[in-house]
Amino acid sequence: MATYFVRMSTGHKGQGAKRRDYIAREKSFSGEKIKQELVATEDFNLPSWAKNGREFFEAADKFERRNGVVFRQLIIALPCELSHEENIKIARNIVQKIVGNTKAGTWAIHSKPAFTTNKENIHMHLMYSDRIQNPNLKEKPKELYFIRYNAKHPNEGGCLKDNSLQVGRRKNPVMNNIRNQIAEAINEGYKCAGLDIRVSGKTLEA
Questions:
Q1: What is the helix (H) or strand (E) element at residue 182, kind and residue range?
Q2: CA dist 27 to 20, 89, 129, Å?
Q3: 201 CB-near residues (< 8 Å, 6+ apart)
Q4: Could you state, in chain order, the average pLDDT of each consecutive group of 10 residues for the chain (206 residues)?
Q5: What span, in angstroms and rounded, lies between the C-alpha atoms of 167 and 18?
């Protein structure tokens, strides 16, 4: 049964590395039972000083301003009708559509037995920083990366933050666009698999 579910949340200073451990099933979340739920995970767009996503979010926890948003997280239901390999392709497509090449983060796919009509609860966690890496500027060290952006002297401040999702919530057109892009990626996956199934990113109200 095709389902569509997307939920966005934010994490603040001190929460980034632990959340990354959770979605990647590492550190305290690497027990045999919970590790079996991990289908795939990848880090993306990391600056050169971060060996992996955990190191990136550790730096965010340390250098981001007090009470600052360290990451955004999307939890996205993936098609249980498709194989894990097909859902991995969808996950990468979602990252490209939503995040692109300028924001760093980690994604992971988890699979659990379903408690509904579906046989499998397969879903994606996508966590990423709002900090935009400007390819036209010299890469910023972690001590500068997360500090306040300096519009007059961009080389001296931190990376600019994308604040487009901080205004409004359910009716934010940016969030509506994200929902539609996720539906588009899922529907492209269904189409590639030759299945005549489609989902909609519209809200129930719409």
A1: helix 173-192
A2: 10, 26, 21
A3: 4, 6, 176, 179, 180, 181, 182, 183, 184
A4: 89 97 97 95 98 98 95 97 97 98 98 76 97 96 97 96 75 89 98 96 76
A5: 27
**Token pair belonging to 66:** 């007090």
Residue 173: what pLDDT? 87
* 57: its two tokens: 């979010």
Both tokens of 125, joined, read 């966690």
> Which pTM value belongs to this model?
0.94
CB-neighbour burial class of residue 168 (10 A; exposed 0-12, middle 13-18, buried 19+):
exposed
What are the structure tokens assigned to 148, written together? 């306040």
Least Cα distance to 78 among 36, 125, 41, 20 occurs for 125
- With tokens 């603040």, the residue in question is 12
